């Protein structure tokens, strides 16, 4: 089965939160946390005409994630369960 042609990625591409999650391997919760706690460093978003959803330019996100790399989280499901009397 032939592969579908892909369009080249441009710095001007606008990405939704779902696309950011896919491209940068980050969860939706982490995106929202970074937006809330960035101290103004999270890139400025763009709202396209006819939409209420914010999108972000790929080049701005690339710059942000170079300065603030995504680090894997610690798995808490492997921690032993603690009780109050321990």
Question: Please, could you describe this protein's structure?
Answer:
This protein has 86 residues and is an alpha+beta fold. The chain is built from three helices and three strands; from the N terminus they run E-H-H-E-E-H. The protein has helices at 17-24, 28-37, 58-67; strands spanning 14-15, 46-47, 54-57. Strands 1-3-2 form a three-stranded antiparallel beta sheet. The N and C termini lie far apart (58 Å). The mean pLDDT is 84.
Unreliable sequence segments: none
Distance between the termini: 58 Å
Mean pLDDT: 84
Helix tally?
A: 3
Query: Tally of extended strands?
Result: 3
Order of helices and strands: EHHEEH
Q: Determine the fraction of residues in helical runs and give it as a percent range.
A: 25-40%
Radius of gyration: 18 Å
Helix/strand-derived class? alpha+beta
The strand line-up of the biggest sheet is 1-3-2
Strand % is 5-15%
Shape: elongated
Instruction: Report on the biggest sheet.
Output: 3 strands, antiparallel
């Amino acid at each position: 089965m032939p592969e579908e042609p892909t369009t080249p990625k441009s710095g001007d591409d606008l990405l939704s939160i779902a696309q950011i999650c896919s491209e940068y391997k980050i969860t939706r919760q982490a995106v929202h946390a970074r937006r809330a706690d960035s101290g103004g460093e999270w890139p400025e978003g763009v709202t396209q005409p006819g939409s209420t959803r914010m999108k972000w330019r790929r080049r701005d996100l690339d710059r942000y994630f170079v300065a603030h790399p995504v680090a894997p989280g610690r798995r808490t499901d492997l921690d032993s369960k603690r009780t109050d009397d321990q």
